[in-house]
Amino acid sequence: MLKDYVALTKPRIIRLNAIAAFGGFWVASKWDHINWWLLLYMLLGSALTMASACVINNYWDRELDKKMERTKNRALPMERLNPAGVLIYGIALGVIGIGVLFTLVNPLTGWLGLLGFFVYVFIYTMWLKRTSTWSTSIGGISGAMPPVIGYCAVTGYIDAGAWILFALLFLWQPAHFWSLAIRRVEEYRAAGFPLLPVLKGIRRTKLQMIPYTLLLIPTGVFMYTYGYVGYFFLIVSIIGGLFWAAHTIMGLSARDDMKWAKTNFFISISYLMLVFFVMIADTNGVM
After folding, report:
1. Cβ contact 189:155 at 8 Å
2. Of the N and C termini of the chain, which has fewer Cβ atoms inside 10 Å?
3. What is the C-alpha separation between 16 and 37, in angstroms, rounded?
4. Are 182 and 106 in the same domain?
5. pTM of the model
């Protein structure tokens, strides 16, 4: 049962977002006078808030999850856990997480955490995921909050650095998710989710992925131009962005959509991990 409760929080998503939050914190700190307690509280509050949103997402989608191969064995569709208990669990995680951000980090990070939670739970999960192809793009607002929270934990205000970090995650998410959606398009169709590849087709989805990957390239350049990272990050972000964008464009002529989507999904995760690790290492031109 404990394993099921942990799985409800979607640990892999939390890990990726924790790295992004850490990256935002480090960019703002610039390797100088790191407040380790503040970092710990920021990561804890962010992780608990994200976990809460994921648990409530699982609670709300439990009936639809029964229709998908990827999700039908989760605890709620299999009725291993009581839905009411899961909802209480999710709310409790959110209250603690937001409380940590407001009281132990700063009020701005608390409001950002609330914004991310609201968009993911109410706008994405309860509304757009069931009604519109815009769910992925608009839902990306919540996924872009972690690095901004990390950054604002240090600065206490929103400036160009916060907006650039937001753009980086916001632009990354649609192409990343649509790669998965293409691979699982028939499952999403059966479950009734109106995702882009379900309603508009795979080719239209591939076309819509291209501008997102291309816009990531100038976003990395802006990180360097505004002095948040060094030259090494600039090179890595441009090469990584060009590689991902090129592979996305090549998808238009791919003969095996599933194979292409699987590779593109892997590239998207690799890109994000590489960019944030280099960002942390090369903050303020350290490398």
Report:
1. no
2. N
3. 21
4. no
5. 0.93
